[in-house]
Amino acid sequence: MSVESFLSDIRTASTRTSYVTGICSFIHFIYSLPPISGNRRTKEERDLCFKKCDEYLEDTRNHGDDLVEFVKFMAEKHSSPQLINVNTTAVKEFMIHHRIKLDEFDLRRVKKVKPPLSAVKRKYDISHEEIRKILTHSHITLKSIILLLVSSGARIDEILTLTLKDIEFHDNYGIIYISRENTKTKKQRYSFISQEAVAVVKEYIRKEGKTNTDRLFDFTYENANYMFNLALKNAGLDGRDENSNTRKISFHIFRAFFLSQMKLVISPEIPEMLAGHEGYLTQNYRNYPQKQALEEYLKAVNMVTFELPQDVREMQTKFEKELNENTQLVKNLVIENQQLKRQIEKRDTEFEQKISDIENKIENRIESEFRELYELGDYLVNKINAMPPEEREKYIEIIKEKSKKSAEEEARNNQLPA
Q1: 105 and 134 co-located in one domain
Q2: pLDDT at residue 142 above 80?
Q3: Which residue, 307, 339, 359, sits at the end of a domain?
Q4: Is 218 part of any domain?
Q5: Do residues 245 and 287 touch, judged by C-beta distance below 8 A?
Q6: Domain ranges, residue 405
Q7: Coil, helix or strand for 162?
Q8: I need a surface site. Which of 58, 69, 151, 300 has the fewest CB within 10 A?
Q9: How far apart are CA 288 and CA 274, in angstroms?
Q10: Residues 134 and 108 reside in one and the same domain
Q11: Which residue, 59, 89, 113, sits at the end of a domain?
Q12: Cα 325–327–332 angle (5° rounding)?
């Protein structure tokens, strides 16, 4: 089918799911198909959509007009700008894949009728208690997915493509190996999972009767997301972001939780390496020995463990509370330090200004004294030159005699005692 050939070129399961939704929404609009019967398309509804896609490619149509009218339709339905953008991209990529050319005029028309993107969804945090609540409302399949995500830092697409051969179980930890075909960086990597995750995944494998060659989870991202959203609703955590109208909590939040919690205990480079964030790593950590990475991981694994004994859970809660208090204390100290720094800088400026004023006054006073001396000297010279010669000679002799006596007196005063 035309859609399946298009989807085969898309790497991630989440993008494939989004694109199927966008393309089928477009086909429903073009052929006025009845709305889907539930929250998700049934296999029959999906097959009908794909069949109609084949029919659309064979029809002679103005594809630019179709896309513009589809965007107008979504805008009139008050769909979120983010949804309109994703659906429009899906249809454009589908057309490009099948060599349907949209010229510059068509693209400008689409851009003109598309509403501007609203504010980006803000980042949300999740607590240990909220994760426990979600786990409580999850069956063993979803619980396995969540514990794998939150204890390894892996992406949801990476977890859903794991086979049993990709997992090693040990007494108090596990290792997952993610093939290069399924990583965002296209580089193979490993990560660790907690003892808690190992126990739940083993039980899931036993109940499902999985064999070594099977995929761990033989369903799509869309199925996993449906299970997750249902658990969120039952846990009372199904809130939505007011800007984007998307759920505050998604699978990605567990990856962020893993990174933030592990970094509280061990060097930040270790969780970044395990999560596949190569851009954050120095060269030393790109080839970090697995044994040493495991030793570090086990130091912090309690931070991503949820079914803890009561005393350990209380210690964890106390640690988080003290951390929050210390964080606030540090913030207050930083603010106080900045205020003191500004006060010191202000006093330094005032002191420098006072010194400058004094120096200017002294300089002006000296300049004034010298000017008066020069004027006095000019006056005396003029007066002496105006005397009769005999009187002038006599006056000069008197001055010389006085200068001589002054010099002798100064010499006596400066002479050291014997």
Answers
A1: no
A2: yes
A3: 307
A4: yes
A5: no
A6: 387-418
A7: coil
A8: 58
A9: 10
A10: no
A11: 113
A12: 95
Token pair, residue 154, equals 């892996």
Helix ranges (DSSP H) in 236-309: 252-263, 269-274, 283-286, 290-300
Is residue 302 located within the same domain as residue 410? Answer: no
Report the C-alpha gap between 212 and 210 in whole angstroms.
7
Q: Please, how many CA atoms are within 13 Å of residue 27, restricted to the half-sphere of its CB?
A: 26
Q: Which has the closest alpha carbon to 178: 198, 161, 195, 164?
A: 161
82, 142: one domain? no
Tokens coding 239 = 């809130």
Is the distance from CB of 148 to CB of 176 less than 8 angstroms? yes
Which residue in this structure is represented by tokens 């995500």? 149
Give the Cβ contact number of residue 411 at 10 Å.
9
* Residue located via tokens 């073009």: 30
Q: How many CA atoms lie within 13 A of 235 on its CB side?
A: 21
Q: Would you give the distance in Å from CA 159 to the centre of its chain? A: 22
Do 286 and 158 belong together in one domain? yes
Which amino acid, 310?
A: Q
Give the Cα separation of 63 and 69 in Å (integer).
Answer: 10
Q: Assess contact for 186 and 179: CB atoms under 8 A.
A: no
- Can you say whether residue 214 is alpha, beta or left, with left for phi > 0 and alpha for psi between -120 and 50 degrees? beta
H/E stretch holding 400 reads helix 389-414
Model confidence pLDDT, tens digit, residues 216-259: 998 888 889 999 999 999 999 999 877 777 788 999 999 999 99
- List pLDDT tens digits, range 14-58: 788 889 989 999 999 999 988 877 667 788 888 899 999 999 999
Q: What is the number of domains present in the chain?
A: 3
Q: If we measure between CA atoms, which residue out of 248, 231, 265 comes closest to residue 132?
A: 231
